[in-house]
Backbone:
């Protein structure tokens, strides 16, 4: 019991150190997951306590980058949760088609799987030429991977099935070639993409988006942080713009819920109210 308490103090101090020294703010992430991940980071760095880990990361940026890798979960897929993409294609796209130009923000884009999925969907729906995609994350390695667009070949079977279930109109293999030991997605899919380092915890709004997709990111935040992120989304969306959270997240408990109406209930796609 006593040990546990000391550990909690150490973890709080370590997160504070990470924030003050590097401006990475994990202080309000959901505790259980942060603890689990920090334990893995501590073991990987070969130190016995969180205080020792704190000492290391304060003095060694490479150690801090190593810890950051553990703190950000990078699991993703192409067309992950295909019914979400089907709903975007069938229900949101008809509205987007009425705009002469579009801005789409993929927040917490990881290594770009969701970005490429949306770029493919927008190409198939004839929206690509009028769209600018902003894809953001706090993990630099992930952003670099997204800019390369190379994914393991052994994942293509599952991605192809997701693509089919999402209502894909061609074959996923039309969008990649093999090389560099993986599936290399066509760079033309990234021509209208701005990748940038942006934190939903510490950074500011983007303006006048028509669609924001932020899935499997806020599950790691506590309630206050979730409210901050949803506030950012509200202020970044044009009137009538769409916010897609995917099935695992909801606006129901958010202090900003009144700014949105439900658009596709099962997929947690919301629309910013017009008035
Ligand atoms: C599990 S992945 C989700 C990827 C993708 N959106 C999906 O649903 O498959 C979570 C991503 O959120 C990013 N992330 C964590 N905290 C963040 C923050 N404060 N601001 C922006 N992105 C963050 C992580 O680096 C990671 O890439």
Residues:
């Amino acid at each position: 019991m006593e040990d546990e308490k000391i550990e909690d103090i150490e973890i709080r101090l370590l997160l504070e150190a990470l924030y003050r020294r590097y401006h990475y703010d994990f202080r309000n992430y959901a505790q259980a997951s942060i603890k689990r991940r920090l334990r893995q980071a501590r073991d990987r760095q070969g130190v016995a306590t969180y205080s020792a880990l704190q000492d290391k990361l304060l003095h060694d940026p490479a150690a801090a980058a190593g810890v950051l890798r553990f703190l950000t979960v990078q699991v993703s897929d192409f067309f992950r949760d295909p019914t979400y993409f089907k709903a975007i294609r069938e229900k949101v796209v008809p509205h987007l088609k009425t705009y002469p130009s579009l801005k789409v923000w993929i927040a917490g884009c990881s290594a770009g799987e969701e970005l490429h999925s949306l770029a493919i969907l927008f190409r198939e729906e004839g929206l690509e030429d009028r769209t600018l995609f902003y894809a953001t994350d706090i993990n630099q390695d992930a952003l670099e991977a997204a800019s390369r667009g190379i994914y393991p070949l052994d994942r293509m079977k599952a991605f192809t099935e997701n693509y089919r279930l999402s209502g894909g109109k061609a074959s996923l293999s039309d969008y990649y070639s093999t090389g560099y030991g993986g599936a290399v997605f066509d760079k033309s899919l990234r021509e209208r993409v701005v990748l940038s380092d942006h934190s939903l915890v510490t950074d500011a709004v983007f303006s006048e988006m028509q669609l924001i997709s932020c899935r499997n990111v806020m599950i790691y935040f506590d309630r206050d942080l979730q409210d901050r992120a949803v506030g950012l989304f509200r202020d970044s969306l044009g009137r009538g713009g769409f916010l897609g959270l995917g099935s695992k997240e909801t606006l129901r408990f958010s202090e900003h819920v009144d700014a949105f109406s439900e658009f596709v209930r099962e997929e947690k796609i919301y629309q910013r109210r017009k008035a």
The chain has nine helices and ten strands. The mean pLDDT is 96. The radius of gyration is 20 Å. The beta strands are 102-107, 131-137, 150-152, 176-179, 182-185, 193-197, 209-213, 237-244, 260-264, 269-272.
